[in-house]
């Protein structure tokens, strides 16, 4: 285990007892979202956090069912994520990929040996008849995680991009073509008929729901597929608990990934406050980084440091999100 992994494991805090009204739901994509989730997991008791994860990036590849955002969240919380990439495993080896390359198979999607073990197990659990959320709960248990990490839905929702190089499935666009095609539109196949996974629905319907945190994930590619499920958007609109969203754009650039490039292609100015209109029918507070303080023009915005390179920064942003939710709740109960 590397020094970074050890630090991640040793830094887990003794979590405080859960106060009443204590469930927080985090809507999360991949790398950026997982960072905030790791901060939340360190300050909240395990039973107080439900992480609902994007499934729009999932695909079948080399006979395996691969769920990149779920993998990223699981590996991050287990202290096993590759520290530089933010996805995939630390301490990885590449024997299977090398052999696949020798055999002339597809190798554009990098699957390390340890990572493949997780995909094999998930695929076997699914073939045995488990739902995606039950299979994922089993994987979380085997990784000794106590936080609830659930796919947003047990039904497939697949992100498809209409680009200048034709209609592309998400991983074909994102990994195989390195986000180079210009995006004209984004669609989420299956979203209209998908329903929320049981753990997500139960948390959002719970009388103990304290608030919802929308992680700093790409609004089009990570949060978009989840919001395209009508049941989620309706549920968020109807909540009395506060919803706080953190912008993944800082000073006009995405912290990671193609969000800013995509916005330009879709004719949207890549600015931190762009998520405000996208989430306006359910969000209470949009959190901007201190670099974008000038965009916080009214009470809908809060400004705190949002860049998360260190464990301390992840915990600090997590605390800020919880404090914002608690302040809103206190205001409402007056
Ligand atoms: N991202 C890449 O940029 N290249 C890869 O080869 C790659 C492989 C991969 C394997 C397993 C996994 O769970 C994630 C992987 N990712 C890879 C990341 C992933 O495709 C994207 O980061 C997410 O889908 C975007 O959130």
Determine the number of helices (DSSP H or I, runs of at least 4 residues).
13
Uncertain spans: 1-14
What does the largest sheet look like? 7 strands, parallel
Average pLDDT level = 93
SSE blueprint and pairings:
Blueprint: H1 3-10, E1 23-28, H2 31-43, E2 49-53, E3 59-61, E4 64-66, H3 68-77, H4 95-102, H5 113-127, H6 132-142, E5 148-151, E6 158-163, E7 166-169, H7 170-176, E8 183-189, H8 198-205, E9 209-214, H9 219-227, H10 230-238, E10 243-246, E11 249-250, E12 253-254, H11 259-265, H12 275-278, E13 285-288, E14 301-303, H13 311-333
Parallel strand pairs: 1-2, 1-9, 2-5, 9-10, 10-13, 13-14
Antiparallel strand pairs: 3-4, 6-7, 6-8, 11-12
Helix pairs in contact: 2-3, 2-13, 5-6
Bound molecules: ligand FO1.
């Amino acid at each position: 285990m590397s020094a970074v992994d050890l630090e991640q494991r040793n830094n887990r805090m003794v979590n405080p007892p859960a106060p009443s009204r204590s469930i927080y739901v985090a809507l999360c994509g991949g790398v950026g979202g997982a960072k905030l989730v790791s901060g939340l997991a360190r300050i909240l008791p395990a039973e107080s956090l439900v992480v609902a994860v994007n499934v729009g990036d999932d695909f079948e590849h080399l006979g395996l069912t691969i769920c990149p955002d779920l993998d990223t969240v699981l590996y991050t919380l287990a202290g096993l994520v590759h520290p530089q990439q933010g996805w995939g495993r630390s301490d990885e080896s590449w024997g299977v990929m090398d052999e696949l390359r020798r055999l002339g198979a597809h190798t554009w999607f990098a699957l390390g040996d340890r990572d493949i073990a997780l995909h094999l197990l998930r695929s076997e659990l699914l073939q045995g008849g488990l739902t995606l959320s039950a299979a994922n709960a089993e994987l979380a248990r085997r990784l000794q995680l106590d936080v609830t990490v659930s796919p947003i839905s047990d039904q497939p929702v697949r992100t498809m991009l209409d680009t200048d190089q034709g209609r592309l499935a998400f991983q074909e666009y994102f990994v195989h073509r390195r986000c180079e095609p210009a995006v004209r539109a984004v669609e989420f196949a299956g979203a209209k008929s998908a329903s929320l996974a049981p753990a997500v629905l139960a948390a959002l319907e719970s009388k103990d729901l304290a608030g919802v945190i929308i992680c700093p994930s790409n609004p089009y590619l990570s949060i978009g597929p989840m919001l395209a499920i009508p049941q989620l958007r309706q549920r968020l609109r109807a909540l009395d608990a506060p919803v706080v969203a953190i912008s993944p754009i800082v000073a006009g650039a995405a912290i990671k990934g193609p969000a800013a490039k995509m916005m330009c292609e879709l004719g949207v100015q890549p600015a931190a406050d762009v998520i405000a209109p996208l989430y306006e029918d359910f969000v209470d507070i949009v959190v901007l980084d201190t670099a974008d303080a000038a965009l916080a023009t009214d009470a809908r915005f809060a400004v705190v440091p949002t860049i998360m390179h260190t464990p301390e920064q992840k915990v600090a942003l997590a605390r800020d999100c919880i404090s914002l939710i608690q302040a809103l709740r206190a205001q409402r109960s007056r």
